[in-house]
Amino acid sequence: MTDPVHARISEIVTANPVVLFMKGTPFFPQCGFSSTAIAILERLGVAFETVDVLADMEIRQGIKSYSEWPTIPQLYIGGEFVGGSDIMMEMYQAGELTDLLKEAGAQPSAS
C-alpha cells in the first residue's frame, strides 16, 4: 500500500520540472536556507514551483522520509531529488546546477 503523503509528494515532483519544498513562500521565506535557495533559482532565471511545508504538516514530515534527507529546503529537478541549499550553492558555483536544469528542460521564468 502506498503512503498517501508520499503519493502526493510524488505527484508534485513529477508534475513540475523544478520544485522547491521550502519554509514560507518565494516572497516571504521563513528561514535563511529557503531564502538562499529561492535566490539561486531566481538568479538562474528558471520557472519553478514551491511548496510551503509550514502550511502542511503532513508534507513537512513526509518530504523528509520521501527523500531520506532530514532538512528543508529540498530541490527536485526532473522528478529527482537534488539537495538542500548548501548543495544548491555548491552546484550553482560550479555551474552544475545550470547544466542539470538545461538537461531537465527547465523553462525560463516569465518575469
UniProtKB/TrEMBL annotation:
UniProt binding sites for [2Fe-2S] cluster: 31
GO molecular function terms attached to this record: 2 iron, 2 sulfur cluster binding; disulfide oxidoreductase activity; metal ion binding
InterPro entries: Glutaredoxin, GRX_PICOT-like, Monothiol_GRX, Monothiol_GRX-rel, Thioredoxin-like_sf
Domain Glutaredoxin: 18-82
Keyword set includes Metal-binding: yes
Top-rank taxon, per record: Bacteria
Gene3D superfamilies documented for this protein: Glutaredoxin
Keywords attached to this entry: 2Fe-2S, Iron, Iron-sulfur, Metal-binding, Redox-active center
Family according to the record: Belongs to the glutaredoxin family. Monothiol subfamily.
Protein known as: Glutaredoxin
Organism from which the protein derives: Polymorphobacter multimanifer
